[in-house]
Amino acid sequence: MKIICVGRNYLPHIQELGHKVPDEPTLFLKPDSSIITRNRPFFIPDFSQQVEYEVELLVRIDKVGKYIQEKYAHTYYHEIGLGIDFTARDLQKKCIENGNPWEIAKAFDGSAVISPFVEKDQFEDLDHLQFHLDLNGTTVQIGNSGEMLFSIDQIISYASQFFTLKTGDIFFTGTPKGVGKVSINDRLEGWIENRRMLNFRVK
Ligand code: MG
C-alpha cells in the first residue's frame, strides 16, 4: 500500500507557512514504515528540533483505479479516517531552501498517524465535514472539508493520473491552519465532528 498526501490544501495554512497558492494539488508520498496505528505513542526523532502536528482527513481507497474521472471518484472510497502528518519543519525548510525533495522531513518512521476508519455514510455531509485537534485538552486546529482548495474527488482524480490507486491506499488530504510543535508528554486527541478518532501521547 502507499500513502498519498496533499500539501497546501487549505488557504489559511498556506498563508501561515508563507507558501504560494497552488493551481494543482501538491502531492507527496509516505512509505508504510511511517505508519502508527492503534493510538500507539509517537516518539520525537533525534534529527529534528521542530516536529509539528498537522491533523488531516483521511480517505481509504477500496478499488483499483487509474485515470479516474472526478465524477466517479466517490465510488473508489467508502471510509473516512483522521490522521496526523507529522512534519520535521526544520528539515523541511532546509529541503525547500536547497531545492531538494521533502521525504526526510515528511516520510520518516512514525510520521503517519492513522485512526480507525469509519463508513462515510455515517457522516451527514462529506463536503462539510468538521474536524479538530486538541493538544493537552486545548483545541489547536479546526478544519472543515468544505474549505479544501481541492476536494477529495479532485485529489483522487488528479493523483490517479500518475499513480495507479490500489485497495488499501490512503490519502492524507491536507491540514488546516494552526500547525505547531510537539513536545515530550503531549497528548493529542483528534476528532471528526463529535467522534474521537485519535488519542495518543508524544514521547
Ligand atoms: Mg500535511
Q: Which structural class fits the helix and strand makeup?
A: alpha+beta
Taking all Cα atoms into account, the compactness measure Rg is: 16 Å
Question: Span from first to last CA?
Answer: 27 Å
pLDDT < 50 stretches: none
Shape: globular
Number of helices: 4
CATH class: Alpha Beta
Number of domains: 1
Write the H/E string, N to C.
EHEEEEEEHHEEEEHEEEE
Which second-level CATH architecture applies? Alpha-Beta Complex
Characterize the biggest β-sheet.
Answer: 8 strands, mixed
- The number of strands is 15
What is bound: which ligands?
magnesium ion
Give the integer mean of the pLDDT values: 96
Q: Can you tell me the CATH topology?
A: Fumarylacetoacetate hydrolase, domain 2
Going by CATH, the homologous superfamily would be Fumarylacetoacetase-like, C-terminal domain
Structure notes:
The protein has 203 residues and is an alpha+beta fold. The chain has a single domain, classed as Alpha-Beta Complex (Fumarylacetoacetate hydrolase, domain 2), CATH 3.90.850. 14% of the residues lie in helices and 34% in strands. The protein contains 4 helices and 15 strands. It is globular, with a radius of gyration of 16 Å. The protein starts with a strand and ends with a strand. The mean pLDDT is 96. The site of magnesium ion has 8 residues, from strand 1.
List the helices and strands and how they pair.
Blueprint: E1 3-7, H1 11-17, E2 26-30, E3 35-36, E4 51-53, E5 55-61, E6 77-85, E7 87-88, H2 89-97, H3 103-106, E8 112-114, E9 118-119, E10 130-135, E11 138-144, H4 152-159, E12 170-172, E13 180-181, E14 187-192, E15 195-201
Parallel strand pairs: 1-12, 3-8
Antiparallel strand pairs: 1-2, 4-7, 4-13, 5-6, 5-12, 6-8, 6-9, 10-11, 10-14, 14-15
Bound molecules: magnesium ion.
